[in-house]
Every structure is written in structure tokens, then in C-alpha cells.
Amino acid sequence: MNPQQKNLDSTPEDKGWHPASWQAREAKQQAKYPDQAELQSVLKELSGLPPLVTSWEILTLRNQIAEAQAGNRFFLQGGDCAENFAECNSEVITNRLKVLLQMSLALTHGLQKPVVRVGRFAGQYAKPRSSDVETRAGVTLPSYRGDLVNSVEFTPAARRPNPQRLIQGHASSAMTMNFVRALVDGGFADLHHPEYWNLSWVQHSPLADEFQRLADSLGRAVKFLETISGRHAGSLKRLDFYTSHEALHLHYEQALTRIVPRQQGWFNLTTHFPWIGMRTADVEGAHVEYFRGIRNPVGIKVGPDASATQLEQLLKKLNPESEAGRIVLIHRMGASAIEAKLPPLIRAVQHTGSPVLWVCDPMHGNTETTSSGIKTRRFRNIMSEMETAIELHHQHSSYLGGAHLELTGENVTECTGGARNLSETDLNRAYKSIVDPRLNYEQALELSMLIVSKFEKLS
Ligand code: PEP
Ligand code: CO
Known about the structure:
Layout: H1 36-46, H2 55-69, E1 74-79, H3 90-111, E2 115-120, E3 133-136, E4 139-142, H4 156-159, H5 164-185, H6 208-229, E5 241-246, H7 250-255, E6 257-259, E7 266-268, E8 273-276, H8 286-292, E9 298-302, H9 308-318, E10 327-331, H10 338-352, E11 357-360, E12 368-369, E13 375-376, H11 379-395, E14 400-406, H12 441-458
This protein binds phosphoenolpyruvate and cobalt (II) ion (CO).
The site of phosphoenolpyruvate (PEP) has 10 residues, from loops.
């Protein structure tokens, strides 16, 4: 059955939902705006602004997720932990797109299946925090909650939640989206070509021979394709990148939630693929209430404390008709916890019979702080969680159909290890993230090759 056609006899409104119904629930991780009148006037303005994506793109993505659920695609979701307005520029966007495109090519070729490319971009501006406030040298101010809310500098003015930032967030997302669409449509094709890949790191890896084999075979495949088709392998003609962000700031999401002519139901038109963060996935909470009524595919972060019962209830609430293409479960357990925590959840979901796409986020369970206070992640742990995830799903007759990664196309030093074996002292050299540490260009490519290699060993 076409996943788009099912479940449209009863509308979400029949079940008491409307775009503001979340407001009757407890909403965690929300900004506390000192000036409510200003907030309301900004939200009114926002609700009149054009959407950032379209319903038909969202429905196409849903179909592709349904195919991934059936084992016929791999889902690659990656980008910054948080975007910031200052980095809404051509270099950062181009490099991020380049690494995602090259990773997806390595995966497509190695896994022999098409890859769904989803950026954590064009709207990833709101962050959950462990505390509402931050204290430095006896001064307490509101925590930084992402550029959508306030600014990172530690001054009262910068940390004051400022509703005007919602308009800036919409504008920066639109600029990013516009540039991504232009790049994908036009002059980006060359990045498929082996000469645009920086593979100098390969020789430093203990797996140098294997990686060189994968890289050479990929180069030959691109050339072969061009020879037989007589055109550039990279002439992508339609939008081939989807956007995603954590739909955390519910007032912002609500303002861009719309009914679309000739479509049934409501769409969140800020992004193709909004996800629910681990801290806001309460079954009775505001975020789950909001997500219940939109037709976008929905990601749910699943942490080590998630129970089988919670997952069953979430599936029932967010996908009552068990529609294909609707739910993506993104587990983020940590390398040391995954083996104990994941299998009962896989079994519970299998028992429901409801289709999901399982994706592994090997980043968020592996964050640690060095003795000098720098937040980092070890490549070894990231790799280990990813490999264990592939193996566990395989053992349980399930399919690990994707990876969710924090990465950048820049040459940063935020995660240790990888082929060049970055050490803790390297972290001082090029650490740019103001939130979580990201894989750099080389580490991201290395991880995609490791994923290929792990799947090859299983088959
Ligand atoms: C994130 O993806 O940046 C994040 C905060 O993740 P989680 O909700 O899984 O902790
Ligand atoms: Co993060």
C-alpha cells in the first residue's frame, strides 16, 4: 500500500490535535522569553513568512525512508551539532555538502544501494541544555540554547532570549537552503570525481590497503558510469539533499506548520525531517503531542534509559496506523552500553510489527571531557558503537539502515583518533565547535569506509 494514502480517514484534528495543542502539555527545554508581547508579535510575523521546504519533497522523503525500512536504501544524516548564524557562509556550506556527498558515494558504491542524504542543516539552531542557567565566577546567566534563542557570549545582553532571532533563524535557514539547492542543481557535480577527494589520510590508517582498494574501486565506478552514460556522473538534476533539525523550539515549529493545497493534513514546512531529541521524548510531553499531528517523517532519539514500554507507546502515538516511511529510530547508546541496551529494544519493536528505520548515532553516547576540560569523542568509540550496531541488528534479523553523525567538511580537531591519530594536544589546534565535537572531513570519510567494510564482512 502506498504509505502516503493510508490513515487519512480520520484527521489529527478528530483526535484533538491542532498545531498549538502541545501548549497544554509540559514543554521541556524551552526558552523563557522575558517579553511575551514581543514573542507573540514575532510569531505572528513568522507565521506569514514563506515555508522553507515543500510537502511533495517531504512525501518523497517518506517514500525513500519506507524503502530504507525495507532494506533497499541506506540513510545518511550528518552535519553540525549546532549551526550558527556567523557560519552561514559559502565555504562552510560547500564543504559540508562536499563531505556528505562524498561519504554518500562511498556508501552507495560499497553497499550497492542508493543513499538518502539528509543534512543536519538549514535550521539546526536550537539546543537542549543540561541546565537552564550557567554560572561563571559567581555570575549566573541563562544557558546558551542555540542561535535561534540567544547568543553564546557570557553577558546578560547576549544570553537574554531574543525573539527577533526566530526571524534570523528562518532567514539563515532559507539562505542555506537556497544555496544548497543551487549547488545540487548545478556546479557541484565535479565533487564526484576522484581528483576532488582528499584521500591522503588513507595511507596513515592501519587499514590503508583496504581503504585504498575501496577508493580505487569507487574511482573506476565513476569513470565507468560516465563512459556508458556519456555524461557526467554527477549531473544531479533534482533536489537530492534533504534537511533536518531537532524540532525543539515548539513556537518556531508551530509558526511554520501549515495546511497545503491539495494535500491532506498538516506539514512542518521548516524542514523535511524534524526529530525529537532524547530529552524531550516523553510520551505525554509537548514535543510528542506536536509531532503526533504532522505528516513529515519523524526521527526519535533513543538513549540508554529508553525502555521497551516507552518505545511501544511512542510508536502507538506517533504512528497509530503503522504507516511505512513515518518513523526513524535513532539510537545513541554509547560504545559501552549498546550491547546490553539495544537488543531488548529491537525485540520490542519487532513485536509491535510497526515498521521503523533503525539508525545509529554513534556520537552522543560517546562524549567525554579531557582532564583540561575539553569536550571530545574518541574515533575508536564512535567506530566501535557503529560496528556493534550493525552486528547487533544483523544478529536479530533487523537492519541497521543508517548513520546519524556530527561532522563538518572543515579540517577541525575536535574528536581524537582516526587514521591520523589525533591526540588530546591536537584538540587545541583547530577546535571550533561551541557545542559538541564533530568528525572532520577525513574522519567522516574514514567512518563511511568502515561502515562499508563492516557490512562487507557480514555478507
Ligand atoms: C544532538 O543531536 O545534538 C543531541 C542533543 O542529541 P540527543 O538528543 O540524542 O542527546
Ligand atoms: Co550534539
